[in-house]
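Q: Could you write out the predicted structure for this multi-component system? I'm mainly interested in how the pieces pack against one another.
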Amino acid sequence: MIPDLGKYAIEVLSAYVVSIALLVAIVALFMRRAKKMRVQLAQVETRVKAIKEPMDGE
Amino acid sequence: MIALLRRDLALAVRAGGGFGLGLAFFLIVIVLVPLGVGPDATLLGAIAPGMLWVAALLAALLSLDRIFALDFEDGSLPLLATSPLPLEGVALAKGVAHWITTGLPLTIAAPALGFLLNLQPSAYVWLFASLALGTPALSMIGTFGAALTVGLRRGGLLMSLLVLPLYLPTLIFGAEAVRRGAEGLPAATPLLMLAGITLGAFALLPVAASAALRVNLR
Amino acid sequence: MSIWEYANPKKFIATTTPVVPWVLWLSVALLAIGLIWGFFFTPDDFRQGSTVKIIYLHVPAALMAINAWFMMLVASLIWLVRRHHVSALAARAAAPVGVVMTLIALFTGAVWGQPMWGTWWAWDPRLTSFLILFLFYLGYIALWQAIEDPDTAADLTSVLCIVGSVFAMLSRYAVNFWNQGLHQGTSVPVVTGGRSVADVFFVPLVVCMVAFGTLFIALVLMGTATEIRARRIKALETRMRG
């Protein structure tokens, strides 16, 4: 399956493994923070509305 | 502007003003080198140009936060900002004051310290020339870094992180000038580059520094 | 219908949210195609052996590391001139992506040079320049995090980005000057664009370059929306407290 990398196998494989790991990590990090902010913003906005609403009702 | 310059110089020379500290730090770092790498005279002579420049650079770095911090703390920085002197002029004066109190003494003291590191005899004049041309740049770049972080408590470490990469070209050309001069190779190019960096820094960085100061004084 | 309409944060989020997943998946697909093609279906190089396969990671990452900083520079200028928050936040979002690109470029560059130089790290001018770029990125990110007020942070980091860009270019020149005498005769195993690469390597390389670029765009769009939300959260919480 893996082509014969010859004597440079460690170099090539480590380059690929580390690079892909870094890419996966940054995508995961960005997605996690995006979700966190979306959730937090929704929470804060509901709180703000709840503070305003009682006054509108009167 | 001269008045501002005079005032800063007076403040620096007074006790606690940090005037001698830079020199003392320069000396200490140079003493650290043989203690760290061993007393082999040939090795020391080989690394002397670079180490002298690194030590001078670190000594300049050390006194940067004083440039604006004192004025910021006692409230005189906003007054300087609203004075008839343009903020760019203030930044320029501060940069010059820093050089006179730090860079200039370092330049003068360097040959003595080069002696401690077994610097090649032919290198001394190049050491002096490169530091004379390069330390003003270090002061002006440092003034910009100080302006960026003036509002921050304990911003010293962050300022070093910001300023040191900006110092790299000056360090590279400065140390190269000394090394090449020591070996009798032509050292005009690095010296010219140093002069260029210093002139460029004094021409452009006061603008950037004053922009940063204005932002921080809002 | 000018691009400045998207400077409105709400409109930016509304427009980019449905688009981001597509761009992200596109970049993953392109990356998979490019890397699999390059890794499995290209021959070894006459001189470099199988290490030539590192090119499919190193060159795209290095290009994006530089492009990310350049995008931050443009975004910083737009912020300073036109005061669009989206622009400042886009620069902030791009920085971590640039850091990762720089790290990949550094690691793959060092590893690629190992068979040639015999050490796992060499102070080759290009690698050194990327290490310096890494330091500039770190400083930029650190400054954003150190400052409380968002507008002050945006202003100061923009000024730093501009001054930093000048010094980064100066450093590149200085480092080349610095390393002239060393490593003579050693060919730096980094390709200048695609021109000196044979066709059989070139196409998967281009695919990878496009993949990295698309990934950068996806992450910056995602990250900018995140930063917009973060800023709004902070503003709302401050208002509620006050």
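A: Regarding packing and overall arrangement: Residues 2-216 of chain B form one domain.
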